[in-house]
Amino acid sequence: MSSATQGPLLVVEGLKVHFPGAAGPVKAVDGVSFAVYRGETLGLVGESGSGKSTTARAIVGLVPMTAGHVRLDGKDLADRGTLKALRPRLQMVFQDPYASLNPRMTAGSIVGEPLVVHQRVDGRAALDAAVCRLFETVGLDPAMRRRYPHEFSGGQRQRIGLARALALEPAVVLLDEPVSALDVSVQAQVLNLLEDLRRKLGLTYLFIAHNLGVVRHVSDRIAVMYLGRIVEIAPSERLFAEPLHPYTEALLSAVPVPDPEVEAKRTRIPLDGEIPSPSATIVGCPFRSRCRKAVAHCAVEAPALVEHRPGQWAACFLADPAFAASAGAPAR
Known about the structure:
- This protein has helices spanning 52-59, 80-86, 107-117, 124-137, 154-166, 184-201, 212-218, 236-241, 246-253, 260-265, 321-327; strands at residues 8-19, 26-37, 41-45, 67-72, 75-76, 90-93, 172-176, 204-208, 221-226, 229-235, 306-309, 312-314.
- Helices cover 32% and strands 21% of the residues.
- It starts with 7 loop residues before the first strand and ends in a 5-residue tail after the last helix.
- The radius of gyration is 21 Å and the shape is globular.
- The strands form two sheets. The chain has an eight-stranded mixed sheet with strand order 6-7-8-3-9-10-12-11, sandwiched between helices.
- The longest helix has 18 residues, at 184-201.
């Protein structure tokens, strides 16, 4: 596991992505800030529609940022020239291995395309050798490089997508739900491969998922998103042991425990109601309409993301013991 003392490699500050809508701007991402440190895996979790994938797409420039900054090694990617120059160092693996590969190209051509576009190889023989090495790196037989995507299983296709992402030797790889479309029996294989590659190649991951069990397995730290905002960030084990935000508590209560006796004693925390519309004007805490612990002040002011414990940040007034005591609520 990595150490934050190595300094952040990827820094996201005040990121906003708003889309035009009939009822007003749709605030898919609304002021997200976090850092990913060299060599670590930061998990990004939340319900569907919380803005996880849009955040990743904005970081790599696939959707335009409305506001904010993304810095890679201290260089601001808002500048198109800087983004183009640093693009090889920032790659992405997409959720759907069926839709993210061109069905008209062979697997070898898909993996080799970044090398051709960025002129990393000289000649057909060098390109073929590089493609073969990449296939071996992700656990595929190089002889399969002449097949087309429809001739591979889901897990194999995701390995092809990973090989394509690794072709330019990136520093950071954004993994957008990389195993959610795969059979459970294949998920563990891909997760173990990702961890092996992280160690061997010194990679840094932003791992997006809705499955907290998967995220716990691979992540050093976890950031929880709700309605386009980060509501809690903490080291993985700390988050699971002592969550500070009620939304995080509800998500964790839904994660099954592989012990029948422990599972029988656990209390499921239901999330009442629906996620508010991203285009709605919200006063106060965005989560208060679904929060079982909300107090009067939650309807007045939106809580800031504050470090309440060393390394553990939460956007919740009740995470502050002094505020909780004054509000007559139990502190967490």
